[in-house]
Amino acid sequence: MFVKHCKVEVYLIELKLCENSDLDNIVTRHFSKADTIESIEKEMRNLFNIPGNKETRLWNKYMTNTFEQLTKPDNTVQDAGLYQGQVLVIEQKNADGTWPRQPQTKSSTATSRSYTSSGKSSSSTYSSSPSSSSSSSSTVTNGDSGGTYGLSSSSLGKGGYGSSYNSYSYRDPSSKPGLCGLSNLGNTCFMNSALQCLSNTPPLTEYFLTDDYKDEINRDNPLGMKGEIATAYAELIRQIWSGEHSYTAPRMFKTQVGRFAPQFSGYQQQDSQELLAFLLDGLHEDLNRVKKKPYLELKDANGRPDSVVATEAWDNHLRRNNSIIVDIFHGLFKSTLVCPECSKVSVTFDPFCYLTLPLPMKKDRTMEVFLVRTDPQCKPTQYRLIVPKMGTVSDLCSALSKLSGVPAENMVVTDVYNHRFHKIFQTDEMLNHIMERDDLFVYEVKSPRGTDSEWLTLPICFRERRFRQSSAAGTILFGQPLLISVPRQKLTADMLYNVILERIQRYIRTPLPEEYSCLSSETAACNGSNGIYDDEEMDHQEENEERDESPEESNGQSDDSVDENSEGCSPCNKMPKKAQDFRKRLFCFSLVNSYATSDVGSMPAEGSFLKLTSYSTVAIDWDTEAKKLYYDDQEAEAFDKHESMMQLQKKKMTVALRDCIQLFTKTEVLGEHDPWYCPNCRKHQRATKKFDLWSLPKILVVHLKRFSYNRYWRDKLDAVVEFPIRNLNMSEFVCDPTAGPYVYDLVAVSNHYGGMGGGHYTAYAKNQETQQWYYFDDSSVSPASEDQIVTKAAYVLFYQRQDGGSYKASSPAASLGSPPTEDDLGEQDRQQDLDCMDTN
């Protein structure tokens, strides 16, 4: 039965198209992954008005003067490995029958070296300048004397993916086998890092370079990739170890990987360990010697000796999985589960391909905060706190309370950004939401948090209002915002002004009575709209004015003269002079949104009560002149440092590899969401679980679990893990008493630099021929020393057992018995059938 899946291609691939005679004239077009090279060529012929009788051919353009011909018109965009932004060039045949890009035959061939397979086809290079020599295909040289850009082509045979394996590479006579960089095709450094590590794994590379893999390709395995992954990998290894290239582009290999693992088909950053896991599994299934996998029933130990159960588990594994990957990379775990209720012990043995080790995590973290007290004379104080890494904001307040003496329930934690409150945290929020770069300000408030008290906590921010000739006002945020406690009921603008003025008195100079007249008319206009004055004084002043002055005059001035000098502030200037002095304030108020970018309401009339809620934000608007005269920027930014800031911070955490192994083999209790079903109790139990190592492979791949994920926390652990370059003795961690010595030497390291959101992958590897270490950074290869290898970037380690140099050596689990032959498997199947027959 065939099942068809419908896929919708939402985003088409953008390709840049140009004609060979004018490479600067680029036209962009979008194509589907299913479009063929032939259809793209037709589109380009129409775009550049090429006559129908003109013969053309297409080229990939990689660099300024580097091209690769697209020779398969029926290949799709995906098959050809074209990626977003790829430049394609269409070339027209000259009138004399020649092509503008003529081939140039390479006069010399590379010297045969070890690790180079026999029978490799010769390669040819091509010049960008016209030539009289003839050839069936063409490329380009860059004109440098040090080397030649070109193509390497070799047939993959019937098991390939239908076309020759073409990859752009740089030929260099001084290149050495294995010292070949891999071009970054667009965020493919993760793949390059994993490939360089595998390439420098001697048993596996020897197996592919001697072509032994060809006899073991399993094209009928339904779990495999028809041998295409193995074939593509073999060709790439052949190029890397040919000694002819200083770097090559693994474009076709990536295309093949993307076909069978869509998560790697694009050009987003991925994980090198995940690519490595897919590749080892794909190679295993493509090279599986078992043609027909039998059905096997798993059996529990039921008190049998571990050696018997382990041998049985390994034999069963080999009956379904028997390949070069199993020979080199597979080992055996021992898993022990103990029921907490009935003490039932369940022992199972499971194969593994790589060892994922947890890193000891620090249980706490250091955070720096500023505490702003209600006492206006106290400067903000900076504290350094040690809080639980998986704690809450309440834990932060408790830690700060111990150092400051301020009750934790009277604290509000905020994140200040760009002179405003970016976030006001709730007490139950997790601390993992707070980043190291966040500026945390903790404010002391009068009322305990969460209580329905008579006090309201009000956010205040400072704005400088700049008036323009058009009378339209623009504002700029400045200073540190405040949280103040005000009465929830019966709050007037006058009371709010006094509360704010009291809180900022440390860095505010109050104007003297004679200085009120110095405030600009613009300040008067600002304060005239919602300025504040004393009600009783105003009433008394009005009564005196009514007795002493006639209706036509006010302070010796006519109404007309007042209007003439009012400058648009008639409400303020129509008041008695004494009242105007009371109304002149340093700043005025605005109800604004949380970003303080726009006003959302106006203040009520004088004497009216303000209707504020817990969602209200008030902006203090300053006139530029008043701010310059009365606001002390330097004092406003001043703060004190608590003695906790003077304490030296602990050095970065350093752990040994053996600590990670011990943590891996430590007994743990299963989580609430992943219990074990106990067959005795017949219910799910939170059993204790313990992993042990029973047998180890020739090549031990150690994955350091630096990336931590759970429902609350996503983080990368950048602790330095100290691991030995030589003589890693794993014997003490192997629980098989009859196992031989397990001593390993390091051969490669995959590095990751950066954090959770991205980064860069590189590799260190030891060259088998030179026995020297090298650093692989995409297309760059440079010598390295052993003291450079152990860093906090180390992510995946490759160790080779000292007695496991050749892939033809004994099995990694020789103590468990040799792999069963086909005859053995057939006899075991027949015996199993007899055991299942009814003999009555």
From TrEMBL:
Stored InterPro entries: Papain-like_cys_pep_sf, Peptidase_C19_UCH, Ub_carboxyl-term_hydrolase, Ub_USP-typ, USP, USP_C, USP_CS
- Which organism is the protein's source? Eleutherodactylus coqui
Q: Which family does it belong to?
A: Belongs to the peptidase C19 family.
Which Enzyme Commission number(s) are listed? 3.4.19.12
What's the catalysed reaction? Thiol-dependent hydrolysis of ester, thioester, amide, peptide and isopeptide bonds formed by the C-terminal Gly of ubiquitin (a 76-residue protein attached to proteins as an intracellular targeting signal)
Q: Name one GO cellular component term.
A: cytoplasm
Q: Where is the USP domain?
A: 180-802
Per its UniProt record, what PANTHER family does this chain match? UBIQUITIN CARBOXYL-TERMINAL HYDROLASE, UBIQUITIN CARBOXYL-TERMINAL HYDROLASE 4
Give this protein's Gene Ontology molecular function annotations: cysteine-type deubiquitinase activity; metal ion binding
Q: Where is the composition biased (Acidic residues)?
A: 533-552
GO terms under biological process: protein deubiquitination; proteolysis
Segment Disordered: which positions?
94-145, 529-574, 805-840
User: Can you say where in the cell this protein is located?
Assistant: Cytoplasm; Nucleus
Compositional bias ranges of the Low complexity kind: 105-143, 809-820
Known Pfam families for this protein?
Answer: Ubiquitin_3, UCH, USP7_C2
What is the name attached to this protein's record? Ubiquitin carboxyl-terminal hydrolase
